[in-house]
Amino acid sequence: MSVSTLSASTQDYLKAVWVLSEWTEKPVTPSIIAERIGVTTSTVSITLGKLAKQGFVNHERYGAVTLTPEGEQLALAMVRRHRILETFLVEMLGYTWDEVHDEAERLEHAVSDLLISRLDTHLGHPNRDPHGDPIPSPTGELVNLDEAVMLADVPANTRVRIERVNDAQPEMLREFSRRGIGVGSVLTTADPDPLADTVSVTISGVKTPVLLGAAARRALWVVAADSPKQ
């Protein structure tokens, strides 16, 4: 089945379940899906019942939501669309990384599988999008980023390289850009300030150390600076 045959709502739900499970090991619940999509929990519960009947999700009442193998395949196709579109917008049309999420959200429902394939070829078959997120291959394979951890969990005086940046808050992406922080940036952490809940980091190529609060450190996913690049 092609993801193009699904309604925009079904596409959104399947992608939301997959993306939510990508960022955390916590169970994906209807309330979390509702918050992400912007609808009520009761609406999510009704829709999940329909998706379960179609064989796309597994969902017990009041329990966690998981994708069936077919649902996961379709979700990965939507994630692939979204991240290829984001990459195209940045690399070919001059968008900045804080502008592309909402634009790709609108476009991903209108494009065909053929157009995505042509964009993928034109871009040279990228395996990461502008935020460092892995782009699924046509068959659903992903670059392995299992070693990446939140900067918030990194001990002081550690040299790391940024692999992924959570794109949920455009204003934070703009602030990262202003401070010289991006995918591939190498930085060294200092001792935290327990009163201010900030950590000073030194960024390679940037003269002045930068103070990062807890939310910013949770948005940055890093690996050891000398780890092989994926």
From TrEMBL:
Keywords annotated in UniProt: Activator, Cytoplasm, DNA-binding, Manganese, Repressor, Transcription, Transcription regulation
Transmembrane segments: none
Name of protein: Manganese transport regulator
Cellular compartment(s): Cytoplasm
InterPro entries, A to Z: DtxR_MntR_Metal-Reg, Fe-transptr_FeoA-like, Fe_dep_repressor, Fe_dep_repressor_sf, HTH_DTXR, Iron_dep_repressor, WH-like_DNA-bd_sf, WH_DNA-bd_sf
Keyword match Transcription regulation: yes
Gene3D superfamilies, per the entry: Iron dependent repressor, metal binding and dimerisation domain (1.10.60.10), Winged helix-like DNA-binding domain superfamily/Winged helix DNA-binding domain (1.10.10.10)
Domain annotation HTH dtxR-type: ranges: 6-68
Sequence similarity: Belongs to the DtxR/MntR family.
Presence of the UniProt keyword Manganese in the record: yes
